[in-house]
Amino acid sequence: MSVVDRQEWDVVVVGAGGAGLRAAVEARERGARTAVICKSLFGKAHTVMAEGGIAAAMGNANSGDNWQVHFRDTMRGGKFLNQWRMAELHAQEAPQRVWELETWGALFDRTKDGRISQRNFGGHEYPRLAHVGDRTGLELIRTLQQKIVSLQQQDFRESGDYESHLKVFQECTVTRVLKEDGQVSGVFGYERETGRFFVLEAPSVVIATGGIGKSFKVTSNSWEYTGDGHALALLAGAPLLNMEFVQFHPTGMVWPPSVKGILVTESVRGDGGVLRNSEGKRFMFDYVPDVFKDKYAVTEEEGDRWYDDPDHNRRPPELLPRDEVARAINAEVKEGRGSPHGGVFLDVSTRMPAEAIQRRLPSMYHQFKELADVDITAEPMEVGPTCHYVMGGIAVDSDTAAARGVPGLYAAGEVAGGMHGSNRLGGNSLSDLLVFGRRAGWHAAEYAAGRAPGARPRVDDAQVDAAAAEALRPFSAEAGAPEPSDGPPENPYTLHQELQQTMNDLVGIIRREPEMKRALEKLGELRARARRAGVEGHRQFNPGWHLALDLRNMLLVSECVARAALERTESRGGHTREDHPSMDRRWRPANLLCSLTDPTGVLAAADPESGQITLERTATEAVRPDLLALFEKDELVKYLAEEELS
Ligand code: FAD
After folding, report:
1. 197: buried, middle or exposed (CB in 10 Å: 19+, 13-18, 0-12)?
2. Distance, CA 434 to ligand 1 centroid (Å)?
3. Any catalytic annotation for residue 312?
4. Residue 158 forms beta bridges with which residues?
5. Is residue 249 flagged as an active site residue?
6. Of 62, 166, 251, 450, which residue is 20 to 30 A from 515 by alpha carbon distance?
7. Secondary structure of the chain: what % helix, strand, coil (to 5)?
């Protein structure tokens, strides 16, 4: 039996971004002894990078805003594939979650009369994003960390131990969710610094590990986004929902090559920035799709007037949802009207005084000055699409965040599916983290409380041994590596690069059937080679080893994306098929669920040829009539299938 450190907790939260920390605060406040595990340093989650703001219908900038309008915008943005109950809860609860952050010490930018300021973003009918300059995620994480520390101080006063009820395990990676009799019993992981294995036993596990962007070559995502939580859920037997929907943000940096993909926040357009092609034309006016025709300005003059008088003018098409803008930029570049480095121009310099740009967009100013030697107060930026967010994710219950099919497993944040349908609106992620992080923590704590310590699922030693052997495979043949005759050892970095190139080129922003089939073949080949991924050295801080383990997750998740994308023969939101260019109402009531074909199988055992993922088509839940009544019938006709309309 493997010797590993073991501890017992009520709730284990995997991930310390906005969703994980909010879940942990809630679970601890409801009395659960809660452990938080994160791959990176505490405080360095992806959420820190969030720039533009948190969407919440507080009505501070326009009193016409309310949760019903926010719900409507979110459903429109997601092209009606959203799990509607999640969209409803999100719109209703987001303002409360933002105000709550202020009571915990967050300081948002203010309006002149002292209320929380709200800015415009694509797809939101009213200015709705509460923000702190363009560093909102930093303030969100800072506040949640501060809250955690204050809870720990409270625990110290009562128990003499800061970590008696809430402990953070930083720089630790979870590689397996453990189960007994189909129920969660804990997690297995390793410390990145020492390489030591550990087990945290708990009846409730909340997965809050964020996204999958590191499977694509051009991405705004950081190194942590290797789809770990998606893979952990799959391996534990929980299905993933609608993985074909990957968001390509329209504006990433395109130059210099070393920074390609880094995000240029949507706030630039929200604050008045415009997109132009190489001919100087504001081309977005040519790309307003029929479903949005009556909501967007038809002339530059009207679009410009909207910033000062939104009640009597329509918004400029630069503020269409992200999927529309990304496709338009892609089309302009393809038609030969791109910028010198293969993007288009985003100009704020002719729209705002230099002082206002530096005040409202300080990070963007520094980012371009330092990384590209471009002064955005005097010249346009060059931008193009970058892989940014995954709408697909763990299938969850809307109210409780419970993962489907695995009692004790919960998911919140970017790793969970359903909330954003086929396309997420900007700002709706940070609010999602807070709303559903809280709900996941709440229900995970309740579930744990219902299981007395003596009656909890026990950790199965055989599973711990198997998890340890799986983690050690890259080091030695004895630990289960394939025979040398299978081929030479493979370098995990080479495999990762090939995977990223494959996903970028063959399952990227515009998709075609033959290319996706080629991608699936290539993924099969990479899977076979990944069995031979070998590393040298020892377990103390060995990044090659860490990557070799992450490859299992990226390969699983990439196969889900490619299979689901091939199956869905329409274009909707973040999924664009050149061979099926329109949204097809017949696909509206369809969800695609991905499961592991052989739930006991791991990478080593999987047949490289046949793949590891099985797809199932299930029906979406009909939208509640009172929510449907928030839309005009004419609009619903564009989205809903025939049988749903009747
Ligand atoms: P994260 O914040 O990424 O946290 C994931 C956590 O899981 C990390 O602590 C990580 O270490 C941990 N983890 C991962 N795998 C493991 C493992 N195997 N074991 C242990 N721990 C693990 N959204 C908005 O709403 N508004 C914005 O303005 C905005 N701006 C953005 C700007 C940028 C540049 C980017 C990239 C995204 C932006 N987003 C924005 C999106 C938003 O930031 C993310 O969707 C959101 O922060 C995800 O939060 P999360 O809590 O789900 O995950």
Report:
1. buried
2. 12
3. no
4. none
5. yes
6. 251
7. 40, 15, 40
Catalytic hit among 249, 439, 511, 577: 249
Q: How many residues does the chain have?
A: 646
ipTM topping 0.85: yes
Q: Which amino acid is at 452?
A: A
> Is residue 575 over pLDDT 70?
yes
Ligand 1: which residue has its CA nearest to atom 26?
A: 427
pLDDT in tens, 362-386: 989 999 999 999 999 999 999 999 9
Residues with CB under 6 A from ligand 1: 14-20, 37-40, 45-47, 49-53, 136-137, 173-174, 208-210, 220-221, 224, 228, 263, 389, 413-415, 426-430, 433
- pLDDT score of 97: 98
CA dihedral defined by 90, 93, 97, 103, rounded to 10 degrees? 170
pLDDT (tens digit per residue) in 147-185? 999 999 999 999 999 999 999 999 999 999 999 999 999
pTM: 0.93
Can you tell me the distance from the alpha carbon of 197 to that of 462, in angstroms, rounded to the nearest whole number?
A: 15
CA angle 599/605/608 to nearest 5° reads 105
Query: For a pocket test of ligand 1, which of 54, 74, 209, 260 has the largest count of ligand atoms closer than 8 A to its C-beta?
Result: 209
Greatest distance between any 2 Cα atoms in the chain: 73
Reference 445, options 23, 21, 7; nearest CA is 23
Query: If residue 183 lies in a helix (H) or strand (E), which one and from where to where?
Result: strand 183-191
Under a CB-based contact definition with an 8 Å cutoff, are residues 320 and 251 in contact?
no
